[in-house]
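C-alpha cells incoming
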C-alpha cells in the first residue's frame, strides 16, 4: 500500500471533516463541497486522517508540503548521531612514549563521544603471558575513567585480547560541543583578522595524527578492523 495520502479526486467518501488552510475547523461537509473550496483557494484537498469517521481532510499546497517535509527529513538525517567504534592497537610491552601517544588518541575519541575498541596484539612467547595484556588494558581504563567506562571486559580472541570502552558523553552532546567550539573559533578569527597563519599551523600540529582504524558497527558487536 502507498504511504502517500489520498488527494483531490482520489478521495472516495461521501463527506469529510474539513480543516481550512490556516488550521481552522470548517466541520463536516460533502466531498463535492470540500473539492469546490479547494479550487476556490487554489489548494489541494489532502486526506490527513483516513481512519477517522468521517475522514479528516485539510486544504493545503501539497507540493509545498512535500518539499518542506523532505527538507526536514534531510536535516534530521544530517544531525543524526551514528554509532562509531574506533580501534586502537597496542603491544603488551609498549614503551612509555608510545603508550602516552596511544592514550592521547583514546582520550580524543572518547571526548568525541565515540566508542573505542582496544586490541592488545601478542606475538611469539608473549601469547603465554596474557596477564600482561590484561594489566595494560586495566591501566588504560583507569587512566581514562573520567571520560569513559569499560563496556566490554577484556577477553582473549586468538592471538589478541580485546576490550571496548564506552564514552560517558553521548555522541549528540559531543557533536553539539564541537559545533559550539567551531563557532567560537570562527568568531575569534573574525575578531582577530591579523592573526598569523603560523599560529594556526602551530595549533594544527598539536593535534595527534590518525593511526587508527575506524569502523561503523552496532555497540554490541564491535567490528574487526
Amino acid at each position: 500500500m502507498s504511504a502517500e495520502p489520498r488527494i483531490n479526486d482520489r478521495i472516495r467518501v461521501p463527506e469529510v471533516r474539513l480543516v481550512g488552510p490556516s488550521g481552522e475547523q470548517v466541520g463536516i461537509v460533502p466531498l463535492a463541497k470540500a473539492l469546490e473550496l479547494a479550487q476556490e483557494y487554489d489548494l489541494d484537498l489532502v486526506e490527513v486522517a483516513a481512519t477517522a469517521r468521517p475522514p479528516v481532510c485539510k486544504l493545503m499546497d501539497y507540493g509545498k508540503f512535500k518539499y518542506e517535509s523532505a527538507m526536514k527529513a534531510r536535516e534530521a538525517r544530517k544531525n543524526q548521531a551514528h554509532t562509531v567504534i574506533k580501534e586502537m592497537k597496542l603491544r603488551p610491552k609498549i614503551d612509555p612514549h608510545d603508550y602516552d601517544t596511544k592514550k592521547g588518541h583514546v582520550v580524543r575519541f572518547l571526548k568525541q563521544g565515540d566508542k573505542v575498541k582496544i586490541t592488545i596484539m601478542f606475538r611469539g612467547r608473549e601469547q603465554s603471558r596474557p596477564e600482561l595484556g590484561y594489566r595494560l588494558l586495566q591501566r588504560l581504563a583507569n587512566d581514562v575513567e573520567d571520560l569513559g567506562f569499560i563496556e566490554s571486559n577484556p577477553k582473549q580472541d586468538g592471538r589478541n585480547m580485546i576490550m571496548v570502552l564506552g564514552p560517558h558523553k553521548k555522541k549528540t552532546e559531543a557533536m553539539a560541543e564541537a559545533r559550539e567550539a567551531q563557532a567560537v573559533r570562527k568568531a575569534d578569527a573574525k575578531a582577530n583578522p591579523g592573526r598569523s597563519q603560523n599560529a594556526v599551523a602551530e595549533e594544527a600540529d598539536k593535534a595527534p595524527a590518525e593511526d587508527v582504524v575506524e569502523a561503523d558497527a552496532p555497540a554490541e558487536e564491535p567490528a574487526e578492523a
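note: The radius of gyration is 29 Å.
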